Structures are given as structure tokens and as C-alpha cells.
Amino acid sequence: PDPGQFLGEIRLELADVLKARLLLERHLIRQEILELLEECKAQIGIQTVIGEVEDSQIKTPCLFGYLRPRILLPEGILEELDQSQLRYVFLHELAHLKRHDIFTGWLIAAVQILHWFNPAVWFAAAQICADRELACDELALSTLADNEPKAYGSTILTFLERFARAHKLPGMAGIIEDKTLVRRRITMIAS
User: Could you read off the pLDDT of 135-158 as tens digits, one per residue?
Assistant: First the structure.
């Protein structure tokens, strides 16, 4: 069997399993959280209807889905983060949506499947994923006041300390995807 095809089938199956699980999960209905999300959507310029789901299997916040996007939050995160930290999380995830990073993730996965044997493709895919996190940070930071970048960077560090790295799926884009990239992200945020 072709290893590229096998890899593609595994990714699709993982995405389908997650999608099926999320259909069974209930969306968040806490009014203050929904209002905060709406404020963030207006701030970043997004009109799309977005669901929020708290899930015990998710280890770090992420955006899931392209046509019907959802922000997935780890169970208990709403008690761990204050309102401003949650706002930064929403802005980062909404930046992924505005930049169409989910579609890009699927496109990258398709190229990796077709060229599974080419290390240059795998290297390029890793660089694209790293750059997309920097671009989302930059977009989120562009919507913040001058005194907020330090708090935004601190929120990124909070996720490193408290939450584990998420599994990479082409239909997901998270706030912490690669711990080795964090120094580069924090340097960019600080500047």
C-alpha cells in the first residue's frame, strides 16, 4: 500500500471521529462568553456564525471546521482564564478563521499525501504552519491596544505551562501547535 494514501486515510478518519464527537457535544450557552466572542468577532471583522464547544478531549484551544467553524475549548478552561485572556484566545482563533487557515491546512495535507516521499514538502509544510501562527498573532495584536501585547504574550506562555500540545489535524488550527516556535512568537509579540 502507498504510505501517502495511508497517511491521508488516517488523517481523514481522525477528522471524521472528531467531527462526530463534536456533533454530540453541546455548545456553550453562557451569555458573558457569547457576548465576548461577538465583541471579538466585531473587533477582527468576522460575520460568520461560530459555535463554541467545551470538550474533555481537547488539550488546547483551537478552531475546527471550515464551513461551520467552532472554537473548541478544553474542559475547565473557562475557570482557569480571566476575561482578557479568553479574549486573546478568541482573537487568535478568529484570526485563523479570517485567514482561511483551515482550508490551507487541508491543502497542505493534500500536498503531503501526494508527495509523502519528498522531505522538502514536509519541511515546507512545517514552515507554513509556523508562519501561520506568527501571522495570526500579528493579526490579533493589530486589534489590541498599545498596552496589551505583553498580556497577549503572557497568555501564550500560560498555555505552554498549563495545557498540552494538540494533535495536528488538517481541519484544526490551535493557539499552541509547536513549542519550539514559542520563542519566535514571543519575540515577535514583544517587538
Answer: 999 999 999 999 999 999 998 888
- Predicted confidence at residue 92, as pLDDT, reads 95
Which residue, 170, 44, 168, is CA-closest to 95?
44
pTM of the model: 0.79
